[in-house]
Specification:
Number of helices: 8
Number of strands: 11
Shape: globular
Order of helices and strands: EEHEHEHEEHEHEHEHEEH
Oligomer: single chain
Length: 257
Amino acid sequence: FLRGRNELVLTPAGRLYEETAREVIHLRDRLYKNIASLENRGHIRLATSSQWGMKLISDAVLWFKDAFPQVTFEFRHLDLDQLYEMLSRNRLDFALAAIPTVESASGTTRILRKEELFFAVPSAHPYCRENPGVTITRQELTDRFCQATLLLSRKPTANRILADALFAEYRQVPTAVNDVNGIPVTKSMISRGIGCSFIPFSCKDDDETIHYYSIDPPLYRYNALIQREDLVLNEPERFFCSYVTNYFREPEETDGR
């Protein structure tokens, strides 16, 4: 090290040691994974920030245990910012999350499906009585609801990014935005007439107290499987990725699912 003011700086030789140490650690981890793969053993660390992710993981674990009974899972439900932090610190192997655009996907991200967002309004709202249909244009949504109480997920979720971009596209600034953590809480508030929100298809239900409008043109987010960057896949992990990647495909494309 070279000692500077309030810091230590690596010398050229120190940088070589650091690079070599990283390579040794990477080779060690790869060796351990290969050994675990031979024995069909291992431990997979998963997290999700979405309801669809919780259902997918519960289905995947049941399916997975038949093929690899010796592999264990560690599962977390996290906010999106926590999820990305744990991936960056190598404390997760995989994450299931919604992203706003295909372009926002990293090199280790696999797009699973495109999911439509609906605009959810309390059924007792005057707009629903005037417009009992199932579609609302983007222009009308931003014009009519920019001064309404909006219940939006916190940044940097895909739903919030898309909602903010929609209002910005039509030069509207919402006057009453409330940050709400979680779709179940959001839907409960909508059903009580407290506000309106954007709800993904996977969370849409038949609750008569909520009127769902399809937005024209449609608003989409993307469900994705995110893998930590330095992960070297063993056989159980490849099996898991294959299951998740095929989860939303038609039955004839997924070998019987």
